[in-house]
UniProtKB/TrEMBL annotation:
Its cofactor is Mg(2+). This is FAD:protein FMN transferase. InterPro entries: ApbE, ApbE-like_sf. It comes from the Bacteria. It catalyses: L-threonyl-[protein] + FAD = FMN-L-threonyl-[protein] + AMP + H(+). Belongs to the ApbE family. Its EC number is 2.7.1.180. Keywords: FAD, Flavoprotein, Magnesium, Metal-binding, Transferase. One of its GO terms (molecular function) is transferase activity.
């Protein structure tokens, strides 16, 4: 079966968009234009964007934003108030550490404690009627890096569905969203799960799933080496320091990519047992946990849908 793939650069990463029919080829560029638009609106890595206008007005006044921005901010705030491990207001801490950038450094405990005063999601006021957002304390900053790519991937899938694209793959830098049925007789897709110890092309296992999202968070791509220690970029909003556990990667399988983004943060923060408890009301979200000793655990919904393909890993469920 022929396929048509275009590669782009946006959202700070390499993006691969694929369709399987020549008549759908124009929707690759259309999807890229959509990505550019959302990036312009939601980025915090430029001085100007709708999200930065909210941050610049912290402690001063509310800011009216577009429906796009308001919808994603509201979702991020709701999740932040409901769960430990995800915090839409974590921007001041992220900028303090700045892991993944040239000026990354290990801050002092005093600096961390000062920033911790600015990451309370309860200090975010939302007004549904005006679609406005108000950060009550000066110095507060939203950072939607843990949710924006998923939101954008879902928007692309909606765009393709509205234009009757039957089959495709949305890959936003390793954040995968499948569109339509696969070419296999059972209509399911086979998707490799990236090994956190090897190059991006190496897989530790294989998923056999419908047109779901596959989102992976790990400590292996963005980290800071200092004083003989490695500090990864996944920060604990309760301590201000990188999350401390034995995980190296968490992969989430879910119908929507934004759901996968949220649960990758929650899974990494809460580890396997507590995550299984949190998943009690989720019927279609599954997680794969990969540990430093190469042991792998999967939540109940993925049992029978995932298998190890690299025998250096061990499935212990």
């Amino acid at each position: 079966m022929p396929k048509f793939t275009n590669t782009y650069h946006a959202l700070g990463t390499k993006i691969n968009l694929t369709v399987y029919s020549e008549i759908d080829w124009p929707y690759l560029d259309e999807a890229y234009h959509l990505i550019q638009h959302y990036e312009d609106v939601l980025t915090v890595n430029r001085s100007k964007s709708e999200l930065m206008s909210i941050n610049h007005a912290s402690g001063k006044h509310a800011v009216k934003v577009s429906s796009i921005s308001y919808q994603i901010v509201k979702k991020a705030v709701e999740v932040s108030l409901e769960n430990d491990g995800f915090n839409a207001a974590i921007g001041p801490l992220v900028k303090l550490w700045h892991i993944g950038f040239s000026n990354a450094h290990v801050p002092t405990d005093e600096q961390i404690q000062e920033r911790m005063k600015l990451i309370d999601p309860k200090q975010i006021v939302l007004n549904d009627d005006e679609k406005s957002v108000y950060l009550l304390k000066e110095g507060m900053e939203l950072d939607l890096g843990g949710i924006a790519k998923g939101y954008i991937a879902d928007a692309i899938k909606d765009l393709w569905h509205s234009n009757h694209v039957e089959r495709g793959i949305i890959d936003l830098g390793g954040n995968i969203l499948l569109v339509g049925d696969s070419k296999h007789s059972d209509k399911l897709w086979n998707v490799g799960v990236q090994s956190p110890f090897d190059h991006r092309s190496e897989s530790l296992g294989m998923l056999h799933i419908p047109d779901f999202s596959i989102v992976t968070s790990g400590i292996y791509e963005r980290f800071l080496k200092s004083g003989g220690h490695n500090y990864h970029h996944i920060l604990d909003p309760k301590t201000g320091y990188p999350v401390q556990n034995d995980l190296v990667g968490v992969t989430v399988v879910s119908p929507m990519s934004i759901t996968g983004e949220i649960w990758s943060s929650l899974g990494f923060y809460n580890d396997y047992d507590k995550t299984e408890d949190l998943l009690a009301d989720e019927q279609d979200v599954g997680l794969i946990f990969v540990y430093k000793d190469r042991e792998v655990r999967v939540t109940k919904i993925l049992k029978g849908k995932f298998k190890i393909t690299d025998d250096s890993f061990k499935l212990i469920n």
